[in-house]
Amino acid sequence: MPASSRLGFFGSLISVLTEITQMNHTHAAPLVLASLQWPVQVYYDASCRLCAAEMTNLRVRDLQQRLRFVDCSAPDFASGPVGRADLMQAMHCQDAGGRVFSGVDAFRVLYHAVGLDPVQRALAHPLLGGLSRRLYPWVARYRQRLPAWLIAPLFERAARRAALAAAQRSQTCSAGRCELPPHTPDPAQTTALASLAPEPASPGVTASATPPDGHGADHPRTILVTGASGFIGRHIAAALRARGHHVIGASRSSRPACPFSQMTQPQAWRPWLSDPASGQPVDLVINAVGALRDRPGRSLQALHADAPRALFTACAQAGVRRVVQVSALGIADNDTAYARTKRDADAHLLGLTAAGQLDGLVLRPSLVFGRGGQSSALFMALARLPVLPLPRAAHTQPIQPLAVAELAEAVVRLALGEAWPAPFAAPGSPATGLLALGGARALSMADFIASLRAQLGLPPARQLVQPEWFSQVTAWLGDVVPVSPWCSASWTLMRTPNATASGALQAALGRAPTPPEALLPSWRTPVAPVDQGATR
Question: Where's the NAD-dependent epimerase/dehydratase domain (predicted)?
Fold first, then answer.
């Protein structure tokens, strides 16, 4: 390159950098963070995946509860400090003193509010801040078009790390379970629990004199179970009914039907948070909805993430404090749509819990076995084959199978506050945070299928290892023709360890769970379908 060209290039570069620096100096100087008045109202577009992910990140980190979040894309949105069109065009926030901030300045306020001052200071830097002001209008305009591979590492993983960090900052984090930081309860919603002194029911388990919703141990409660006609949800609903509780079953087959994947706004859930007969609010909510892949008219994003997030937000708004989310083990470190969307809902519930708006509990069970499960049916079919070709991961990666009836019992006991894995932050307070549930012991999937075959009274099968390319092709065919649980998502999940060192299931049950060698009765024991009494 000639010297004159080099000088021209560097001269242009210096001019651009000077312009950017002056731009940031002009905008950033008036912003004085020390004079902010809390709380700050945050106006954001919840229909934007990027915006929702960043708001989850902020919610989880907002331990001092300085922020109040307002979805300006909601149909029932009333008004804000500026017109709705302006709110949808750029991030806005308003402090308690009436000062309005937008764009990069709004983010500086929000990051300062949640303790991310290094990020806030970077946005105030003459060069980085000026560059941010140049880029922000473009990002805001095209935010709906940003690819998932860009959003996930920048914001969704940050929110997940923040949720886990919030749990680790708590008083207790052990045995696969974390207690989130304590919060000051609303006196109108809770009662003093300092005088309770429950006695241990069994090693590692504490029984509560008063369950977390304030009812007595024998008091029937009204409980919303979403996915109540599904594999896990049916067993949970049956276990609750067996204890005399009134179950409002929300599912595709309930009456009226619950179009779960379409209920992505909090206001859609409000009619479901009360008993239609008595008008009494529900005491707790258990979400057991799940699917392995997208179906026409039912995306995993809506089913696993958007609808549960709306449900949890509606619970917080309606004062339904106790919420249990049945998630899945093995979703932390893979980027399938199944895992990513499950993590989204988990992080949202943990964020609301860390902010003191809910008493949320996320349960992540390993492989669940029993009548009605598609994976269980596939395992039983494979167990009858004399020659068994399996992917390599089926011989190497651990799973920790548990009976669906025992999972349902553990969910009920944890939800109702009958027992929790020890230790506890405060006796009588609800168990919150993230809890991994595994069966009696870990083994490979190939060994589990061999165990089922032995329980059927059949001689050992000849096991073969499939080439990786063959596993990949058959998984792709499962995506194209969805006639079995085998697909790309299940192949990816199979290659992820699905076991936990936690003894939380035994602690929750108060007894040892059924070992893999004795799980066949779980397949032979049917569960009654959701009946009229279990529907809304």
Answer: 223-376
